[in-house]
Amino acid sequence: MSHPENSHSDRLMELLRDHLERQERSLEVTGLAVRILAAVQRNTREGSNLHAAFKRPRIWLVWTLGVGSLVLSACLLIWLVFMPSAEVQAEQAIRQAEEVFQLPLERHYLVEVRPENESGGEQAIPMRTMQMWATGDKFRTEVTRGSFRWVWGRDADGTVWVTWHPQRGLRIAPDEQGPALRWACELFSLRPEALLSHILAHCRLREDDSARRLHRRIIYAEPKPWSRQIWLRRAVVELDAETKAVLKLTLTRINKSDGSTAVVTFTLVDVRPVEHRRYELEGNLVEPFQIYDRHYEPDRRSKILSRLVGPNVDAWLLPEKARPQMDSALDGIAR
Amino acid sequence: MHGKGDLENWVRTTLPRALGYARAVLRDQIAAEDVVQDCYVRLIEHADRYDLLQDGLKILLRSVFHACLDRITRERSLLSLDDTPNGTHEICDRSSPDPPQEAIAHELSDRIERALGKLPVGQRAAVHLAALGYSLPEVADIMGTTHGNARVLVHRARKSLEAELESFLMGGET
Predict the structure, then answer these.
(1) Residues in A 71-100 with any Cβ partner in B closer than 8 A
(2) What are the pLDDT digits (tens) for B52-72?
(3) Contact call for A149 and B34, based on CB within 8 A
(4) B57 touches chain A (CB under 8 A)
(5) What ipTM describes this predicted complex?
(6) Which residues of A touch B74 (CB under 8 A)?
(7) Chain A residues with CB inside 8 Å of B98's CB?
(8) DSSP E strand stretches across A166-211
(9) How far is CA A257 from CA A120, A128, A224, A327, in A?
(10) How close are the terminal C-alpha atoms of chain B, in Å?
(11) Contacts of residue A15, Cβ cutoff 8 Å, sequence gap at least 6
(12) Fewer Cβ atoms within 10 Å of its own Cβ: the N or the C terminal residue of chain B?
């Protein structure tokens, strides 16, 4: 005869097993599987140690592909040279999109920053997807990690602020910002509206005609061969064919200081009237609040920042002694 | 593992278990997906060191558990660093039931979810594996703890769950 406690326990484990197995079956994992395999493949391309996972391609195949891509590139080059009208059309579309951006509105984007090399050293961006609101030179970004959420942004004068609590925030003045923070700011200050001008000035454009059937215009931009603006490797602009609004912008961005690259995707979510207070730290706090900065509890500010961005806090907030030297070294970072 | 097809199959087969486990420990779908993706990528990068078909799932679960713990520890230390004066905090506790759900939560699965959500992380992680048929030595191995500690964690989790789900265990409500 079984003890009632044991039978309870067995029944419990049975219920639990059924529940967990049902949950596993109901999980939608296709998208995640694709993302994982893509990440693995990306790493393979970058020469990671994945030989056990994938077979080596035969050498003749590599040669064939190499020669094939050279021929294709040559054809593409000829096509680009002899088809200026297509490029003019793409340029017109970008100019019209620029005009749409002149309206004094706040644009809400979903932003995905994907470092191309996950082990990108101290300047790797640890964030993946976030929401961003931008108007003029100001931006405000909301990051959610699990159940934890924080908001950070940049004032018009270049001060970076962070808040993770309705009554707490911190500020980092421009001369205190480390290379990783500057790199992150560069990524986010690349607002789509500012980028369109850059693309027009420095890139060769190519349009994907097949997208027009879907009332979209997709324009590929790559730096002109003689362009000295080497921070942008490529961009893809997706426009609404009718309104000329930018629906999506994907950039492959090069960090000049360490050569690492990141793919930044801006997807337009919403457009609405600007609420300027939301771009200042105080506009995101409720009184009474505390703001940590270089004058008020700077050590606590460092500790909090390290919890947000990881242990290598010096890459985000320069130690006092390093500030003047680092500043001059960083002056060359492309804007 | 011999080729790309094997790798894809392995990922697709093991993913529901790994993601389910990460979700159970973290109580957050997005965070779980992040953790699981990182763990797969790291593990596959070192695929030459393991026989993924043979031992991969267990190694993966071990990696997922520790990555989840790292994440929880990091979030907690941030919260404790910054004490809140009025006891109000914007950071939500996903394990707590929200009122509309509370009102309609008569189904067994909701009750189990809530009961699991109340368990400490270690107990939740241990009982999850035990319920899925992993032996105590396997639970201990995955969680990187001793056999004795794994037994205690599973035992305590069972007791708490029994108390929470008593009405169902007495029969009749299922």
Answers:
(1) none
(2) 777 888 889 999 999 888 877
(3) no
(4) no
(5) 0.78
(6) 307
(7) none
(8) 168-172, 203-208
(9) 12, 21, 22, 13
(10) 43
(11) B108, B112, B165, B168, B169, B174
(12) C
